[in-house]
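Risk register update: the risk of archive-format incompatibility is retired. Evidence:
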Amino acid sequence: MERNRAQALLFSGGLDTSILAFLSPGVYALSVRLEEFGEDFKYAKALSERLGLQLHLRKVDVEEALEAIPEVIRIRRSFDPALPNDLALYFALQLAREQGFDSVMTGDGADELFAGYDYMFHLDLEHYLPWLAERMHFSAGELGSYLGIEVRQPFLDEALISFALSIQPHLKVREEGGRKYGKWILRKAFEGFLPQEVIWQAKRPIEVGSGFAELRGIVASSISEEEFAEAQRTYPIQFLSKDHLYYYRIYQRVVGQMPSPQPGEERCLGCGAGIKPSAFHCRICGWCREAGCEDFRSL
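Archived output:
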């Protein structure tokens, strides 16, 4: 932790960031929410009070979030439908800058290394997790760089990655109280240090816990069924939803043409852009090559 410590922590009150908060006495906690949506703030507020952390909250209204979409698409050069995840991170990092912090920690990597996603419960984790560890990528670093914030990711420390991959899968996915949990060994390691309701809470994706997932329905409501059907016929893009089309139109305006595949790349079946043969999803359009990658294509 010492070499990855930062001035502030992007804090959801979920298991991963709660572990970092416990291990970082005195760290400033930062949390964002879209208006009154999402559950993260409830958990973040309760745990910050228990741990004696100073919590900074930024409440973002819908109009402000909509206005930020073009900038986030321009930074990420992507119209992936997981954009609400990036928006939540963008506003949290913006809050860090407003508070005068120049470095933050995130909980990135814990789910990938300790099997925190439900779809992983039925996979051969002994082979899958090392494969994933070589390919995982997180948008917080890119957004932080743009905003002048250094993003530190303790779970991605090389020593921790090596240790995590040495742990047997049956210690990562296991039943407790009649229910199957991922990250079982992490949960057990911090029992007695964190409240039970934090230890055994269900996974909340960033965009869900922060409420930014609500934007999907809001932007989708601006596109009629006829308009969406016409776009599916007209554009050489496999649109997954109306909000996907909404983001693509902005991408066309602020980024421009789709990049052609470069030597060594394959053509994405979703948008025609280049994608590395080893990639499990297209970072431009979000098309998934691997089953289950919908759970983390925002990474």
